[in-house]
Design goal:
13 strands; alpha+beta; two-stranded antiparallel sheet; 48% helix; 414 residues
C-alpha cells in the first residue's frame, strides 16, 4: 500500500497558505498542541499552535496565562520595529480594560449605525459604476473595486477626513494591510510600506491635535472627548486605536464580503435561498466568516508554564491561536463543520475572537458587510466570481484576496 503523507501545517509554505484546511484538519486530529520548529532565523521562528476550538477558546479567555503584551504574531518584537507605542490589542487587563471602556464609549454601535445611509449610498454608486464598466466589456474586480473599497471609504468618513485628503487614505491603508499580512516580519518591513505608514501616523497625529482644539461630530473628536471617571485617552491611545481599526478592520471586512460572494457562487442553491429571503443575510455572513475566517490566526505569549491537552508549554513561548482551524472543529460544530450552511444555528465562533480581546469593531464589520451583500444581491442576484483567475493574499495571519474578478454583473434589461 502506498503511504500517503499527512497534510503539512507550514505557515511559511505558499501551498499550505493557499488551502490551509487539510493541514488544520490533521492538527486537530493528531497534533492539537503543535510545536512548530523553525530554522533558527528571525524569519522562521519556533512557535506553538492550538487548533481545536475548546483549546483556543480557553486560551484567549485567559490573558493572565496567554498574554497579548508581546505582540500578536509568531515573530519577536514585531511592533517595536514600526516605532509605535503599544496599542489596545497588545495590552492585557487591567490596563486593557480601562482603555477599552473609553474607546467603546466613543466607538459605540449608535455612532456606527448612523453611518448606514452614507455606506448604502456609496455601495449603490460603486455597483452602478461597476455594472457600466462590465457592460462596456471591462474586467471588474469584485475585491479591488468593491469589497475592499467599502471599509476604506467608511473609515475615512468615520474619521472625518476632509474630502480633499481622502485620496491619500487608500494608499496608507494598502501599506498597512501589506505589513499586517506579512506579520511585521523583517523582510516585510523593508521598502516603502513603513514610510507610508509613518506618513499616515504623522497626518493623524496632527488631526488629533486639531480635533482636541476644535472637536466635531467625527470619531476622532469623540475619542479626544471620551471620559470615564476622570480618565481620558492620550494622543498615543487614539493613534494606536486608529492603527487597530485600520489594520484590524479594513482588509478583514473586505475579505468577509468577497468570501461571502465566492462561497455563495460555489453553493448556488444557498445563494437562491438568500436572494429569496434577505433576512438570512446576517446569519449567512456569520456562517461565511466561520467557514473562511478573515483572521486565520494570532499569537499570544505564555506568562507561565501551562498544560494544554496533556502537553506542557513552557513560559515565554509564542502560541498561535488558529481561529481558522477552530472555526471548522467538528467537536464544536458537528459532522458538517466543513460544509457551508447559511441556515446553521451558530451559538458562537471565533471569527471575531473571544474574551477581553473580542473585536471592538465587530458591529462595524457586520453593518458594512450586511449593507454590501443586501445591495449586491438586490442588484445582481446571480453575481459570481472567476475563482480560476482569482489571486489570494498568502498570509499566515489573514485569509483573503488580492484579486477576485466578478461575473454576472451585466445591467438587467428594463
Amino acid at each position: 500500500m502506498t503511504h500517503v503523507p499527512a497534510p503539512a501545517f507550514d505557515p511559511f509554505d505558499p501551498a499550505h497558505l493557499a488551502d490551509p484546511y487539510p493541514g488544520y484538519r490533521h492538527l486537530r486530529k493528531a497534533d492539537p498542541v503543535h510545536f512548530h520548529r523553525g530554522d533558527g532565523t528571525a524569519a522562521h521562528p519556533d512557535f506553538w499552535a492550538l487548533s481545536r476550538y475548546a483549546d483556543v477558546d480557553a486560551a484567549v479567555c485567559d490573558p493572565g496565562t496567554f498574554s497579548s503584551a508581546s505582540g500578536l504574531t509568531f515573530y519577536r518584537d514585531e511592533i517595536e520595529k514600526l516605532g509605535l507605542a503599544p496599542t489596545i490589542v497588545m495590552m492585557d487587563p487591567p490596563e486593557h480594560s480601562g482603555k477599552r471602556r473609553l474607546l467603546a464609549k466613543a466607538f459605540s454601535p449608535k455612532r456606527v449605525a448612523a453611518t448606514e445611509p452614507q455606506i448604502r449610498d456609496f455601495v449603490r454608486r460603486r455597483l452602478a459604476e461597476m455594472a457600466q464598466r462590465y457592460d462596456d466589456g471591462e474586467v471588474v474586480d469584485l475585491h479591488r473595486d468593491f469589497s475592499s473599497q467599502i471599509p476604506t471609504f467608511v473609515l475615512a468618513h468615520l474619521f472625518g477626513l476632509p474630502p480633499a485628503d481622502r485620496p491619500r487614505f487608500g494608499p496608507w491603508v494598502s501599506a498597512l494591510t501589506t505589513l499586517q499580512e506579512e506579520g511585521f516580519r523583517p523582510a516585510g518591513l523593508e521598502g516603502g510600506a513603513v514610510a507610508a505608514v509613518a506618513e499616515m501616523f504623522g497626518y493623524f497625529g496632527e488631526l488629533i491635535t486639531e480635533r482636541r482644539a476644535r472637536p466635531g461630530e467625527d470619531l476622532i473628536s469623540a475619542l479626544t472627548q471620551a471620559e470615564i471617571g476622570g480618565e481620558r485617552l492620550d494622543d498615543w491611545d487614539i493613534l494606536g486605536f486608529c492603527f487597530v481599526i485600520v489594520a484590524g478592520g479594513n482588509d478583514t471586512t473586505g475579505n468577509l464580503i468577497s468570501h461571502t460572494v465566492a462561497l455563495l457562487d460555489q453553493h448556488p442553491r444557498q445563494r437562491e435561498l438568500l436572494v429569496s429571503d434577505p433576512g438570512l443575510i446576517p446569519g449567512a455572513l456569520s456562517e461565511c466568516l466561520r467557514f473562511e475566517s478573515s483572521v486565520q490566526g494570532l499569537a499570544r505569549t505564555t506568562t507561565r508554564e501551562v498544560a494544554v491537552g496533556g502537553v506542557t508549554i513552557p513560559a515565554g513561548e509564542k502560541v498561535m491561536m488558529l481561529y481558522g482551524s477552530a472555526n471548522r472543529d467538528e467537536r464544536e460544530f458537528g459532522p458538517t463543520s466543513e460544509q457551508l450552511d447559511i441556515r446553521r444555528e451558530i451559538t458562537g465562533h471565533l471569527g471575531f475572537a473571544r474574551g477581553p480581546h473580542f473585536c471592538i469593531g465587530s458591529h462595524f464589520a457586520r453593518l458594512q458587510a450586511r449593507i454590501a451583500v443586501e445591495e449586491l444581491y438586490a442588484a445582481h442576484p446571480t453575481i459570481g466570481v472567476d475563482m480560476g483567475a482569482a489571486v489570494r493574499a498568502l498570509s499566515p495571519f489573514t485569509r483573503g484576496f488580492d484579486s477576485l474578478p466578478a461575473t454576472g454583473l451585466a445591467t438587467p434589461l428594463p
